[in-house]
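Structure first, sequence second, as always.
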């Protein structure tokens, strides 16, 4: 494993806009990439954008933009890496690396690096290692050859250079071994889940940084790590919760994000089994985020990929304290009251839903009572002859 100095690497970010995309959307995407970059421990020093109707097969971006970035790097030798918001093919990555003589990462590479850094348990580490090797395998040829002197850092955490330099066969072997290891753990975890008895299982799901762990802590009086960073949670935590004599299991797990590649979701299959086997999903949404509607869509798409789109779902709009709305008369941005939320289009288009501020403990009682009645509904579906109080 390679040690790195956090916060010391300087990064250029590159975003690509499309003709029929609103300008604000590219800005939001780049804000998210900036946050990912900070989470990985690097400092973004410059952002380049380009509008393209089609990607360049050799460099993704057009040759003019390549020159522009190159000129910037010439002048700012302290730049360590260039991060693209879009996916790069292995050959594009190699070509860009040869041009810029810097580490090149795409969004997936950056996310993997954060995962490698965040993984706590042996189990999460195995899952991340598997994902990293799957990502690296097609990129092995000629990779990092320009970077011999520049060891370590973002994108090189995890498997390590010596491993990368070995032949593909060894890596394939390692992938097979990691898969086997995960199958074993899966088996153990399935047994564990079975032993948890007949309790209804509720799973927190949602876009990363929406406030899932904060809500988990609030509802279960536990102490799951919550932070203003993306992917603070990688492992799954399960807690037993009792409201008014009704007991159920509540789990908190990894957040979803735009463009999460399928292989990454696949390698987190076991972590996400808790979601797959849940009776009820508690979908946490950061309502104060300008793109919250898009986040909802992405979470739903990911749930479809996990084959859990049909599960009963209660949507929790969190961070209502940060929400602002235009006040027509005074032409300023003002907060929205609980009543205002309940009469809004948000309420109407996402039933059943609850509005809360987990940070300020606003409307938590309603969340508890709606959740309790949903849980009881699930118990009565499963045990129709049982009397639930
Ligand atoms: N203002 C405000 N901040 C909140 C609220 N709920 C959570 N936060 C903050 O939002 C940040 C993210 O919260 P987490 O609970 O870590 O979010 P998460 O969904 O578990 O995130 P990941 O595990 O990274 O996917 C933290 O800094 C929280 O303190 C809220 O209601 N209002
Ligand atoms: Mg979390």
């Amino acid at each position: 494993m390679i040690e790195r100095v956090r916060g010391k690497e300087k990064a250029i970010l590159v975003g690509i806009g499309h003709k029929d995309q609103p300008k604000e959307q590219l800005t939001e995407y780049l804000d998210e990439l900036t946050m990912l970059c900070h989470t990985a421990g690097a400092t973004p020093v410059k952002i380049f954008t380009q509008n393209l109707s089609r990607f360049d097969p050799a460099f993704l971006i057009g040759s003019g933009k390549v020159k522009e970035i190159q000129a910037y790097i010439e002048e700012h030798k302290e730049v360590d890496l260039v991060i693209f918001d879009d996916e790069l093919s292995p050959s594009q990555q190699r070509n860009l690396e040869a041009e810029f003589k810097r580490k090149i990462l795409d969004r997936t590479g950056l996310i993997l690096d954060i995962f490698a850094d965040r993984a706590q348990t042996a189990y999460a580490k195995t899952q991340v290692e598997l994902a990293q090797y799957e990502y690296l395998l097609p990129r092995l040829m000629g990779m990092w050859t320009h970077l011999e002197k520049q060891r370590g850092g973002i994108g090189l955490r995890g498997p390590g250079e010596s491993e990368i330099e070995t032949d593909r066969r060894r890596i394939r072997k390692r992938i097979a071994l990691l898969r086997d290891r995960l199958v074993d753990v899966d088996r153990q975890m399935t047994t564990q889940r079975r032993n948890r008895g007949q309790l209804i299982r509720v799973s927190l799901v949602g876009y990363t940084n929406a406030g899932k762990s904060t809500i988990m802590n609030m509802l279960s009086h536990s102490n799951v790590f919550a932070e203003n960073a993306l992917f603070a949670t990688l492992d799954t935590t399960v807690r037993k919760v009792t409201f008014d004599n009704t007991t159920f299991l509540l789990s908190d797990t990894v957040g979803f994000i735009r463009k999460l590649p399928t292989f990454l979701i696949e390698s987190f299959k076991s972590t996400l089994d808790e979601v797959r086997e849940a009776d009820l999903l508690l979908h946490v949404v950061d309502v104060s985020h300008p793109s919250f509607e898009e986040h909802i869509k992405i979470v739903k798409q990911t749930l479809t990929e996990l084959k859990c789109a049909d599960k009963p779902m209660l949507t929790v709009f969190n961070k209502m304290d940060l929400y602002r709305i235009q006040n027509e008369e005074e032409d300023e941005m003002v907060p929205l009251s609980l009543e205002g939320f309940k009469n809004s289009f948000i309420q109407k288009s996402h039933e059943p839903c609850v509005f809360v501020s987990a940070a300020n403990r606003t409307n938590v009682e309603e969340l508890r009572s709606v959740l309790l009645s949903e849980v009881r509904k699930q118990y009565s579906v499963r045990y129709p002859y049982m009397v639930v109080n």
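Margin note: The pocket of guanosine-5'-triphosphate (ligand 1) is lined by residues 206, 208-214, 226-228, 230-233, 255, 318-319, 321-322, 357-359 (CB under 6 Å).
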